[in-house]
Automatic annotation (TrEMBL):
It comes from the Eukaryota. The chain holds residues 161 to 613 of 617 of the full protein. It is found in: Cytoplasm. Its main location: cytoplasm. This is Elongation factor 1 alpha-like protein. One of its GO terms (cellular component) is cytosol. It catalyses: GTP + H2O = GDP + phosphate + H(+). Belongs to the TRAFAC class translation factor GTPase superfamily. Classic translation factor GTPase family. EF-Tu/EF-1A subfamily. Residues 32-253 form the Tr-type G domain. It comes from Lineolata rhizophorae.
Length: 453
């Protein structure tokens, strides 16, 4: 067929592949301790400040830069903003002026190399959070411990974000109970928040052992990278935020499964590399010289170069976020955000119909929805409510319900206007007019029938 001819054409070229046993290379590389995380939480609860503090205290940002940011912040009378600007600053420099949708910041402790996935300055935070969370090993949920702030966050985005990341497959959560300085480091306040959130998170499907609560202050830096000063919180003898991050180990890597990279960013028009993409390897391995299949375009491409953490590398493995330089691709203009690079032997099917097991946040009934998967936002509709399910056992409670109540788990049938690359086990979010109504797991996909040519 056409696909194989293309593959042969590509394989006769001089390619400079080192033909590495990537799994073996990875085993001996000592790269195991690397983790990606997203930062979520209600607006103003201190996400940017906390991450700025982390980067500053771990010496990712030099003193001169922070001094400059501090002077700028002082000039406009917002001294406390300096730390929050660190995140934007470092990612901007890193990307040399290229606009990206998902900004990445890296930092390292003696144990682990971390990547913070951040969606900077977007009006609607949720689609970008979904894109970020799809690439994350775990999430950091930032909660403002200040009077009334925690409570208003609960009505706001605190719960929505936690539910969303859980629905997207994130199992581990580090809850930063932030702004403890504003709560006078009161143990009662910390315990109150911990109790309320624990109950909610358990109900949302997080296991207790996978959730850590860490009191801290991004503004002062107490219990972020260093412990609380003596006397400030004598009741607390747990880890710092950084230690808690190190303890949140990344999920198992699907090294031997077929390659899957969902395209999170596309860079075109570079002089050395005319076409590059970046994204997380969800499964499999990749090396320079490999041929990949781009779905749904159905095009083959050669991997002419790879970068991980801004360094040129020979290979990349599941769990890493890589920049992939592509050559020999026809119809490169057809590549879009959310497309999937995959193994030519096992490409991802393009589907228009599927069943999903969802957790509903709002009422769900047969209706028009946007289906979000990674960066893809596809129009479609809920065609049928198959059954409501028991939350813990997954057993059928009621067949063909008329409506699914908020908080209930259900199996629904979805049809898309246009096919997207999708397979069993993918995580999708359903939204209506910018509001999240449900999220869940793709169970069965029906491949679009190949057009007869
Ligand atoms: P984001 O919207 O979640 O990213 O929140 P920001 O990091 O922009 O912080 C929102 C506001 O809270 C700013 O005025 C910060 O200076 C303030 N803030 C952030 N962290 C702390 C903290 O640990 N203690 C106190 N007292 N204020 C903080």
């Amino acid at each position: 067929g056409e696909t194989n001819d293309g593959l042969e054409k590509l394989s006769v070229k001089e390619i400079g592949s080192k033909n590495l046993d990537v799994v073996a290379e990875f085993e001996k590389s000592g790269l195991k301790n690397a983790a990606n995380f997203v930062v979520i939480g209600h607006v103003d609860h201190g996400k940017s400040t906390l991450m700025g503090r982390l980067l500053y205290d771990l010496n990712v940002v030099d003193k001169r830069s922070i001094d400059r940011l501090q002077r700028e912040a002082d000039t406009i009378g917002k001294s406390s903003f300096a730390l929050a600007w660190v995140m934007d600053q470092t990612s901007e420099e890193r990307n040399r002026g290229v606009t990206v949708d998902i900004a990445m910041n890296h930092f390292e402790t003696s144990k682990t190399r971390f990547t913070i996935l951040d969606a900077p300055g977007h009006q609607d935070f949720v689609p970008n959070m979904i894109a970020g969370a799809s690439q994350a090993d775990f999430a950091v949920l930032v909660i403002d411990a200040g009077t009334n702030s925690f409570e208003s966050g609960l009505k706001g985005q605190t719960k929505e974000h936690a539910l969303l990341v859980r629905s997207l497959g994130v199992q581990r959560l580090v809850v930063a109970v932030n702004k403890m300085d504003a709560a006078n480091w009161l143990s009662e306040r910390f315990e109150e928040i911990k109790q309320q959130m624990s109950a909610f998170l358990t109900n949302a499907g997080f296991h207790n052992k996978n959730v850590a609560f860490i009191p801290c202050s991004g503004l002062t830096g107490d219990n972020v990278a260093r412990s609380v000063p003596q006397g400030t919180a004598p009741w607390y003898d747990g880890p710092t935020l950084v230690s808690a991050l190190e303890a949140a180990e990344p999920a198992a890597r699907a090294l031997t499964a077929p390659l899957r990279i969902t395209i999170a960013d596309i860079f075109r028009g570079g002089i050395v590399h005319p076409l590059s993409i970046s994204g997380r390897l969800e499964a499999g391995t990749l090396q320079v010289g490999d041929v990949v299949h781009a779905a749904p375009a159905g095009e083959l491409a050669r991997v002419s170069g790879l970068e991980v953490d801004d360094e040129a590398v020979d290979w990349a493995v599941a769990g890493q976020i890589a920049t992939v330089h592509l050559s020999d691709i026809d119809g490169a203009q057809h590549l879009r955000l959310g497309d999937v690079l995959c193994s030519p032997q096992h490409p991802v099917p393009t589907v228009t119909k599927f069943t999903a097991k969802i957790l509903s946040f709002e009422h769900v009934l047969p209706m028009q929805v946007s289906v979000l998967r990674g960066r893809v936002d596809a129009a479609g509709h809920v065609e049928a409510l198959v059954a409501t399910l028991d939350k813990s056992s997954g057993a059928v409670v009621k067949r063909k319900p008329k409506i699914v109540q908020p908080g209930a788990v259900a199996r629904v049938r979805i049809r898309l206007d246009k096919g997207i690359p999708l397979e069993d086990g993918a995580r999708v979010v359903l939204r209506v007019e910018g509001k999240t109504v449900a999220a869940g797991l793709v169970e069965v996909v029906d491949e679009v029938k190949k057009k007869a040519t």
